[in-house]
Amino acid sequence: MQGISNSTESYDNEELDEVRGEVRFVKTGEPFEVSEALQVNVRAYGTQRGGLGEHVEEAIENVLRMLGGGAAGIEFDRDEDARLSDELFRARRLGFGGIAVRLTALRALCAPVGGLDAADARTIAFYARATVERPLVLVMDEGDMRLPAFVMSRTLEEIIADETCTDDTEASPEAPSVSLASIIAQEMAMSEPTPEPEVVAAAPDEPAHAPDMVTEPEHVPEIVTAPEPTPEPEVMILNEPEIPWREYANALDAARGPQTLASFERLFVHSYMPLANAIDRGLHDRRAIETRDEFRRTFSRAYSEALPTFALTGKRPKMVLDAFDVAGKMARAHNARTTQVLVVDGMRYDLAARACARTAELLEGRAQIADRITLFSALPSSTPRQLESLARGVESLRNAYEDRDVEPMRGRTADTVRRVRIGSRDLYKLDVVETTLAAAGHDAIFVMDDLVEETARAIAKHARTQNARTMLFVLGDHGFRLEGGAAHHGGASPEEVIVSAHAFLLGDLH
Prior knowledge:
This protein is an alpha/beta fold and about 500 residues long. The protein contains 14 helices and 14 strands.
């Protein structure tokens, strides 16, 4: 189904001619299009150094969205490889045999050091490598072939030695680099299949020898090792023996200075939440905890300071208070007849992703995830505050708000969707997440998997009672953080503020 694909490239329409992947250099300003491919033009002007990868992905997503390519699959956020697979899948569904990416004005990314950033060079290398096995065409200007790209690293000791060198020996260059054409040629050569070595038969009296070859050392990923068992073990519920938490920590440490909203959201999804979940599930590494806490403090301080300005400047991210407007626009884009807003009390970002994916499975053939979006909660991140902001809109941000506790529905009614009047509008509300976490107390982490299933079944049950062509906009009003095993909300931490919304288009689908 469109919108909940597994990001594979087993396309439904086998009659389409698949585009042959290639890297093409053309004269600057010369138009170049592949008739069978989805054409995506990417100009590097205005792109931040190191942000070319996100710029290309956003350009592809904009073209797919404009042509009605539907929402990304549930595996879209895993890594760049999965995102490209998902984009090729949706292009195929639109009737294209592949994607052609036209990169121009790359020289704009060379300032101020005279060469491409290593991250941008890696992005170009990734797409060049992908053309070997996928229906992807990468087109660039001939004048960019000789652009230098800084892809080599040097130790601080080497740099200092060069700067303090006083003899007549020639110092190494300040920033070693290679040309963009060299990078592409190397990446494509590495992607070519290599023939298997011949097996040399040994004589009866001689030991067998493998053919002479130089092998690359096998990369051993860094893992978190479980502690040795003790007579009285601590609570340790890490299900994954190998968690690349150092990668998450490194990504958070490297995120310095101003970030675009898209960059920050990706950092939150791919690095912060996985690291926070690993810690909540038993990871006790000091560096991991310090990295998570520092990112949390920085975001909390910045968001708390920025929130009062949202109503004055108008510059703000999409928020929970925009739910009715966002749902209406999505409904019109997908030709829905009616719209419903369903607020799941306390449904955190990661919980929403799992629960909505499971809901789509339960509603297979009767609903599809047509779109999704990231939203930010107003402060304090509590249900009464979000309901008040939904009723008053952006005006609710102009005045200070005193939070008040509202008792959630308990017992049998907690897993039943109920209608709530908010100002002049109606919305639907589900309290199963908030109620279950409150009842779990300090064992909240243990109920997460069951909570995903309960939430999905409650949403699916409600969806089955709705008319065809209804847009069901499901969102969490706020998230929660785990401390001492218990769920807390009301603060300004990323996991309490950042939520997501999934738009389900209901009806019998073909």
